[in-house]
Amino acid sequence: MRKILRLALREYKAAVKTKGFIIGLVLAPLVMGGGLIAFLLLKDRVDTTDKRVAVVDRSWVVTEALVKAAELRNANEIIDKESGKKVRPAYFFEEVKPNTNDPKGQRLELSDRVRNGDLHGFIEIGPQVVHPGKDRETFQISYYAKNAAIDDLRNWAAGAINNRLRELRLADAGVKESDVKDLFFWVTVDGLGLVSLDESTGAIAEGKRASPLDAILIPIVIMMLMLLMIMMSVPGMLHSVMEEKTQRIAEVLLGSIKPFEFMAAKLVGGIAVSLTSSAVYIIGGIIALQVMGYEDYVPLHVLPWFFGYMLLAIIMFGAWSAALGSTCSEAKDAQSLSFPTILPAIFPMFIYFPVVREPLGSFATWMSLIPPFTPLLMVLRLCTPGGVPAWQPFVGLLGVLLCTLFFVWAAGRIFRVAILMQGTPPKLSNIVRWAIRG
Amino acid sequence: MSTIELKNVTKTFGKHVAVDGLSLTVPQGSVYGFIGPNGSGKTTTLRMIMNILYPDSGEITIFGEPLTPASCDRIGYMPEERGLYKRMKVREVLEFFGGLKNGDGIRAKVDRWLERLDLADWANKKVETLSKGMSQKVQFIATVVSQPELVLLDEPFTGLDPVNTDVIKDAILELQAQGTTVIFSTHDMSMAEKMCDYIFMIFKGVKVLDGTLAEIQDRYGTDTIRVRTGDGMTALQNLEGIERVNDFGQLQELRLAPGGNSQVILQEILKRTYVRSFEIVKPSLHDIFIRIAGPQAKEVERA
Q1: CB B63 within 8 A of CB B135
Q2: Would the CB atoms of B83 and A257 count as touching at under 8 Å?
Q3: Is A119 in contact with A143 (CB distance < 8 Å)?
Q4: Chain B contact for A421, CB < 8 A?
Q5: What's the number of CA atoms in the CB half-sphere (13 Å) around residue A164?
Q6: How close does chain A come to B153, measured CA to CA in Å?
Q7: Which residue from B5, B41, B69, B6 is spatially nearest to B202, judged by alpha carbons?
């Protein structure tokens, strides 16, 4: 054990006493969370250039209302009242008489105006839009623009046009809007967590208002943090073992310690590195959230599971990584094995979205009980507001524990044979043979 | 008392027999030289003694006990391919390797060895800044700094200049004087002749020589003539009764054919040229090596 700790300590120092580690400690979360932070910072930054849109209204009844709605919007919504700054673009609609003889030619002509920058886009409204029939083309509303799929103007125009259509339909039915109070008052449905009983006080606690922050963001951040911890140590083991093998340090070490102790020391060192990083991130994260007043969002109840699963994941994937590293005789071998090494660890990232959307669904449940995916997916599910049935984290942990023991056993056998073998390429058949025969 | 005892040890890799039924006894406090051509089984034997490779059959006893991982702590091992952490400082790497075996007072031991091998000024330099010779000396210190009772050195003199060769040679002899058993493999026959109490030669996995230099030379008799003549090699062409002539430029080494007579040969040479020196000697280790493993070698004969 003394030798394992001594070698692990060297591994730990070699990893954390580098500028790369310090820089990585700062940069890694920025890179991984950078997109989210950028989105939050930039979501209110919009292009305030005014937008002119042509309207080809074949129904002849919508354009006027659209122009008025735009005027109302331009008067009330584009200037921030406190700062007096323009925060949104003004919309201007220009009526263009429909060309019934050559509609395609008219669309081309308007498209050219958009290309020239004269227009932002144009809308074409079908003749039967007020009372749609069976022929879709007669009531279709089409919006043509350079980037029509993601365009705030399209969403705004859809609302304004449909308000006008509802007014016209009510009028045709003989109903005045003023006769039906709150006809267009839209009521939202608030999402709330379940009501619970506080056993200490006997009081009924109201359900917590559900927000995307704790339903999606917190689980994903916690999962990403665990992935980050795994990625900070596991791929490094592949390269460090490969280096020790190719630089012939491994044989010197094997004169002092057994191959299994050698691998175990690598794992202990890797765990220590990840624990150091995670302690920095978690303590820093909790303090930051407290300062910002978001301390209620910290899922403290998940932290024991987080660390338990993280340790096993690092041992499991680290053993796999060290075993593969021992099969490499040169740097290009390690390069080709880098992806297979981290694949089991990163696979949950490909399926996290359906899991976080329906954390109690059968897909989420079964995927989170497949041992290599359990650490990330179970922690993700545990962080969701509804949590998971109490038995599942325990069953998942047992599965991961058994899987880890198997990985370490197989990796130890591969490591023992491969670490002294030079010039033998890391073929799958060899790796399997070494794992089976030892 | 023997430090190492190998009994009928065999190791195979696939179909290749690397070591075949090897038995060997290494007395305590001796310097034992392992010689043999490349790929003959020297390194495999050393690795089995170190418990890095396990024999397929046979028995290895170290310090009178069956080989265990714990006994490796009493052995220092320097592999043929040197391996040091390049980004660590010299002192750190030595304390690390020494500490893996026996960490007691390691810092003082490291200082003493750095001073002894003239590396004290490099103690706080990174290994990657050292020359090859200096790296080799650091590797040697890493092997012996924990004061092991048995030291295994695989090709310790390879790549060293004469000065550093002498430094390592003196250090090995100092270790022996302190009671340490030293085994080293080498391709330098003269070094083996001069330093080793016992010499063991392995060829194609089979032990072909084992004993003191005198014992080995006695096996081959006095069939060698060293001669210096006025005309060098040209005077020795087509001499009858000679099996082989080894030309060293300034002197030639002649091996007598079976039944050859040295006096008849001397007379024949005197007819051709004048003789500066004529010496009947035992064959050198180099010559014996060539006889066993050279192109004209006959079938492997177990020692």
Answers
A1: no
A2: no
A3: no
A4: no
A5: 21
A6: 11
A7: B41
Q: Are strands B198-203 and B31-35 parallel, antiparallel or unpaired?
A: parallel
Beta strand residue intervals within A2-130, DSSP E: 51-57, 91-95, 121-125
Whole-Å CA distances, B198 to B32, B40, B155, B248, B303: 5, 18, 16, 27, 14
| ipTM computed for the complex | 0.77
- Which of A2, A6, A21, A254 to mutate to probe the B interface, most B CBs <10 Å? A254
Angstrom distance (rounded) from CA B214 to CA B202: 18
| CA-closest candidate to residue A159, choices A88, A87, A96, A72 | A72
Give the distance, in angstroms, between the CA of residue A338 and the centroid of all CA atoms in the same chain.
23
Q: Is A252 on the interface with B (CB under 8 A)?
A: yes
**Distance, in angstroms, between B302 CA and closest chain A CA?**
29
Distance from chain centroid for Cα A31: 13
Token digits of residue B70: 């714990």
Task: Label residues B78-98 b or e (16+ Cβ within 10 Å = b).
Answer: bbebbbbbeebbbbbbbbbbb
Going residue by residue through chain A, which has 438 residues, state the pLDDT in tens, using 9 for 90 and above. Answer: 788 888 888 888 888 887 877 887 777 667 666 666 666 666 666 788 899 999 999 999 999 999 999 999 999 988 888 888 888 899 999 999 999 889 899 999 999 999 999 999 999 999 999 888 888 888 899 999 988 887 889 999 999 999 899 889 988 888 877 777 777 777 888 777 778 788 788 888 777 776 766 777 888 888 888 888 888 778 888 888 888 888 788 888 887 888 888 888 888 888 888 888 878 888 877 787 777 777 777 777 888 999 899 889 988 998 888 888 888 877 788 788 888 888 888 898 898 888 888 888 889 899 999 999 999 999 999 888 878 888 999 999 999 999 999 988 888 888 878 887 776 777 787 788 778 776
Q: Do A254 and B97 touch (CB under 8 A)?
A: no
Distance CA B254, CA B225 (A): 5
The pTM of this model reads: 0.70
Pick the closest to residue A75 from A57, A97, A98, A92 (CA basis): A92
With H, G, I as helix, E, B as strand and everything else as coil, classify residue A230.
helix
Q: Which helix (H) or strand (E) holds B135?
A: helix B132-144
Using the Cβ of B102 and the Cβ atoms of chain A, whether some distance falls under 8 Å is answered with: no
| Chain A: closest CA distance from residue B69 (Å) | 7
